[in-house]
Amino acid sequence: MVRWVGIKCAQGQVIVIQLPWKGLRGHITNRIGQLQGLRKLSLHDNQIGGSIPIALGLLPNLRGVQLFNNMFTGTIPSSLGFCPLLQSLDISNNLLTGTIPHSLGNSTKLYWLNLSFNSLSGSLPSSLTHSASITFLSLQHNNLSGSIPNSWSGSQLREVSLSHNQFSGAIPNEIGSLSRLKTIDFSNNALNGSLPETLSNLSSLTLLNVENNHLGNQIPEALGRLHNLSVLILSRNQFVSHIPHSIGNISTLIQLDLSLNNLSGEIPVSFGNLSSMNFFNVSYNNLSGPVPTLLAKKFNSSSFVGNIQLCGYSPSTPCPSESPSEGQGILAPPAERLKHHHHKKLGTKDIILIAAGVLLAVLITLCCILIFCLSRRRSTSNTESGQATGTAAPTRTQKGVPAAAGEVDAGDDNNGGKLVHFDGPLAFTANDLLCATAEIMGKSTYGTVYKATLEDGSQAAVKRLREKITKGQREFESEVSVIGRIRHPNLLALRAYYLGPKGEKLLVFDYMPKGSLASFLHGNPQLLNMAMFENFIFVSFMNIVISPLHSF
Predict the structure, then answer these.
(1) In this structure, how many other beta carbons lie within 10 angstroms of the beta carbon of residue 288?
(2) Could you give the CA distance from residue 52 to residue 94 in angstroms, rounded to a whole number?
(3) What spans are recorded as compositionally biased (Polar residues) (predicted)?
(4) Residue 424 pLDDT > 90, yes or no?
(5) Which of 173, 333, 352, 472 lies deepest, with the highest CB count within 10 Å?
(6) Which helix H or strand E contains 368, and what residues bound it?
(7) Which DSSP state fits 48?
(8) What is the DSSP letter of 207?
(9) Mean pLDDT, all residues of the chain
(10) Is residue 226 part of a domain?
(11) What is the CA radius of gyration of the chain?
């Protein structure tokens, strides 16, 4: 039987085409309609242009289409809505225009629909909100307009994102009937009216984001019944009146942003019970009174600024003198006031300075030891490499790089690429890696990070380095071999690397499902959540410890 990389056949028919990250160009022709047995088409992360062929929607066995991160233009073929077995359609991050076909909502098997990051226009088809099969609907970052349909009967819908569009009008009450809904993101639109009280019926809801709209009136007290809610973002709207006390009863709340509204009154005392919260912002409202002690200690002044009558959140915003019942008011004896003043000075100045000095001394000592050990290891590695060059040529790998301890050359793929494993639980071939389902986790100057799911269900984080900033193959392999041997409980281990036939460079790490250092440190990029002193110590330590690692 004839086999090609990324192509699977059965009974003389092509059933799977998986060619992601191949640098493919050109376009897909209507001749693809001749592959009547095709079940899955995965060509994501290439440079394919042109329009999506109409014939693609005429394939009776088609189940999955992943064409995201390409350069497709034109409109979405309405024929895709007539594929009787279509389950997943992801054509996000392209250059598509035109409207969303109504026919997509008629597909009875379709559960995953991602059309985000295009230039689609027009309204949201009511057929999508009527769909009984769709569980994931992502339309963010387009030019969609009009009102959000009132008819929402999608009993299976779990995530809906319409952010960064031009939707207007009110949020329909009918959304409160979607009992399985976990995520609502309607941020950065032009929605107005009130926040529906029916949202309190969504007992499974974990995220509600309506930031940067024109919503007004009072925040519903009923939101306090959302006992699974972890993220509530209502900032940059026109909400008025007081903050509901019931929100303080949501013990699962991690992020709360009510900034840039017209809220008044005091911050509810119940907010002091939200011990799990790592991001809080009520800045630029009309709030007054004292800030609850827990919030004042946990969050810096940027969470509260812009409220002229708010006090107690920083040394420059003291509240009126404390109650005499606490024994330290103006009626307390002079000796007691002097004793309290002396105790406060020791608690806020001397103790912190002493602790800071001791901690810095310990950290500097540990860093010096680490730098010394790394320098010796690097020197030893260079010496062994030089000896191997002169006397042990047979121990070199096929590419001329010394084999490092713990490395296993997984062999070349059918296109001439090279996959090298380090020690770890992951075991896969180059073809398995290149055909894995990929989801973008982030982008930077140095490359793109993907969440890769292999065919056996295992997951890994894969970073594809940009070709223009990476080094030559021999120098790259030498440095990666050193990094691959480093093991530390606070460093993510490098499990494998792949060198493609055209110079592609992939680094494979363990997938960490609980977020990044940035999310732990900041929670939200708009605000620093740790205390200033804790940040100074933490960043100083990270700078000293990580800088010698970069020298490798």
Answers:
(1) 14
(2) 11
(3) 381-398
(4) no
(5) 173
(6) helix 351-391
(7) -
(8) E
(9) 81
(10) no
(11) 29
Best CA proximity match to 30, nearest among 58, 49, 71, 60:
58
Tally of CB atoms within 10 A around 428:
22
DSSP assignment, residue 223? G
| Residue 309 belongs to a domain | no
459: containing domain? 368-550
Q: Is residue 174 scored above 80 in pLDDT? A: yes
Query: Which tokens go with 177?
Result: 């009937």
Q: Which residues contact 326 (CB under 8 A, 6 or more apart)?
A: none
Q: Is residue 268 part of a domain?
A: no
- Residues 66-89: pLDDT tens digits? 999 999 999 999 999 999 999 999
Nearest to 433 by CA among 458, 416, 400: 458
Beta strands 447-453 and 418-421, pairing class = unpaired
Task: Report the percent of the chain where pLDDT is more than 90.
Answer: 51
Residue 49 pLDDT exceeds 90: yes
In a domain, 262, yes or no: no
Number of neighbours of residue 182 by Cβ within 10 angstroms:
16
4-13 average pLDDT score: 89
- What token pair was written down for 58? 């005429």
Cross-strand pairs, 161: 138, 185
> In this predicted structure, what is the pLDDT of residue 521?
55
Instruction: At 141, give phi and psi (nearest 5°).
Output: 60, 60
User: Domain with 380 in it: what CATH number?
Assistant: 3.30.200.20
Q: Quote helix, strand, coil % in the chain, to nearest 5.
A: 30, 25, 45
Q: Which residues have C-beta within 8 Å of that of residue 268, sequence separation ≥ 6?
A: 243, 244, 245, 247, 248, 292
Question: Which are the contacts of 386, defined by CB distance < 8 A and separation ≥ 6?
Answer: none
The position carrying tokens 């009450």 is 173
Contacts of residue 44, Cβ cutoff 8 Å, sequence gap at least 6: 20, 66, 67, 68, 69, 70, 90, 438
Q: Is 512 exposed, middle or buried (0-12, 13-18, 19+ CB in 10 A)?
A: exposed
| Higher pLDDT pick, 344 / 514 | 514
- Residue 347 confidence (pLDDT): 55
34 burial level (CB within 10 Å; 0-12, 13-18, 19+): exposed
- Name the band, by pLDDT with cuts 50, 70 and 90, for residue 535: low
Instruction: Give the H or E element holding residue 476.
Output: helix 473-484
Q: How far is the C-alpha of 405 from the C-alpha of 310, rounded, in Å?
A: 61
Token pair belonging to 218? 């009072």
Cα separation, 285 vs 239, whole angstroms: 10
Structurally, the chain folds into a number of domains equal to 2
What distance in Å separates the CA atoms of residue 184 and residue 512, rounded to the nearest whole number? 24
pLDDT, position 343:
42
Q: How many helices (H) and strands (E) does the chain have?
A: 8, 29
Q: Give first-to-last CA distance, the chain, whole Å.
A: 47
Residue with the two structure tokens 């192509």: 7
Cβ–Cβ < 8 Å for 114, 91: yes
